[in-house]
Amino acid sequence: MSYQQLSLKLKPDEMPEDVKALFVEADRRCDEFFAEGLGRRYPRYIPSDPSIVHAAMVYLRAEGLTRGDVFCEWGCGYGVATCMASLIGYEAYGIEIESELAEKADKLAEDLKIPVQILNTSYLPDGYEECAGVGGEDLLIPETTTDRGEMVKIPPMYDGLDPDEVDVFFVYPWPGQEDLMLSLFKTMASEGALLLIYNGDREISAYLRTVDEDDDGDW
């Protein structure tokens, strides 16, 4: 194992006014989203509880657990967590494969004048493959041949963002995908990075990327 779970002590009711305003506007737009029937088009889009996610982000910073300020949300949807991270003080990126949702995330941030970068791409980079359907249990890591004929792993990259530089990842996975997210975190993140996984029902977990004797080493 190359990560360890951290304990969280959260205070979800303590939110500044700008974060509350973000929640109110995002909630209004999400209601419109479902009223327009778009929830049927994107059946996996279910918002997390922003107060819990916010409390976890604040706790990590307050306790000095974050090594830096680069935040990345896998599957950002409307970009609420991404915007929230920016308001807290992160350099915030959201990754969303659905173009319509990515546009809505961009629009929300633009209208509220919150600086974020939304990447309209998959959080599983080119060459990676989710196996066994929704409950993926493995990642196929791409390899290439060097001039010497040696097989080496290809460093994973996002468009405009090096995962190796991300300090905090966040994801609200589909049920059964938690192990996949931990495998992705182990593969993508560098030592000292953190992963927040929203588990639903106001539950959230935090993990620290570590290096041990069984680790394959950095890219």
Give the topology, please:
Blueprint: E1 3-6, H1 17-35, H2 38-41, H3 50-62, E2 70-74, H4 80-88, E3 91-95, H5 99-111, E4 117-119, E5 143-145, E6 151-153, E7 168-171, H6 178-188, E8 194-200, E9 203-209
What does this protein structure show overall?
The structure is a single chain. The protein has 219 residues and is α/β, with parallel strands linked by helices. It has a single domain (3-209), classed as Rossmann fold (3-Layer(aba) Sandwich), CATH 3.40.50. The protein is 32% helix and 19% strand. The chain has six helices and nine strands; from the N terminus they run E-H-H-H-E-H-E-H-E-E-E-E-H-E-E. Helix 1 runs antiparallel to helix 4 and helix 3 runs parallel beside helix 4. The radius of gyration is 17 Å and the shape is globular.
Radius of gyration over C-alpha positions, nearest whole angstrom: 17 Å
Give the helix proportion (percent range): 25-40%
- CATH architectural grouping: 3-Layer(aba) Sandwich
Ranges where pLDDT stays below 50 over 5 or more residues in a row are 131-138
How many separate helices?
Answer: 6
Mean pLDDT comes to 83
The CATH topology comes to Rossmann fold
CATH class: Alpha Beta
Give the structural class: alpha/beta
Number of strands: 9
List key phrases describing it.
single chain, 219 residues, alpha/beta, seven-stranded mixed sheet, globular
Describe the structure concisely.
This protein has 219 residues and is of the alpha/beta class.
